[in-house]
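Allow me, if you will, to draw on your knowledge of protein folds for a short while. I have a record of one protein: its chain in single-letter code and its fold written as discrete structure tokens. The full record is reproduced below for your convenience:
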Amino acid sequence: MRVAILTPAYDGKVVCDYAISMAELFRLSSKIDSLEINLNFRMHDALIQKSRNDLFTEAYEAGFDVIYFIDADQSFSPKAFFETLASPADVIGVPVRMKTAEDRYNIRPENIDGHQFHPELGLLEVECIGTGFLKLTRTAMDILWNASPEYRYDGKTRRMICNMDIVDGGLISEDVQICNKLKAGGLKIFANIDATCSHFGTKRFDGNYKLHYFTEQIKRESA
């Protein structure tokens, strides 16, 4: 299996915790003969959507079996990486703590009523999850490729996999658009909530989405 990890890094830097997580991931992967992992960066590009489009296009055209978007300002669980890789689900993200004072995450809608936990898979089916840590199989990549318009940049053809749009006066992010394309193509969006990525900004923002989800569920059941 050939896997590409795609990381936009605008200023050419990653946080130390990202580097530590990645080093452990590669240490563990070295014990699996049937697995090839490639780490690809797009640096010094101020447009995050363009960076993701470039990374996606290169990985798609290179024929990778699976890709992961993993952002450079996060720490992540190598264990969760291998759990999501082993899962048959085509689209799996790991929740990322948002850089807010409130305990918030990159799963939409934030109201948990729109999501369903599947005990047999150990995964939460969600409407949308962000690209901070997101696994896409070749099936998912094909859907995104075929559903996205072409454009040319520096003489090369790209696909607008990631974009922002305005719908009914509201801003629709690249994350939502990607998930909408995948659902329109017949796939479900899952989250592995056994792990939560920390997020780095003015400080380290830690969280536990699984605790958050089941706490909210208990509140609703007891109301």
Q: What stands out?
A: The chain has six helices and 17 strands. The CA atoms of residues 54 and 158 lie 7 Å apart.
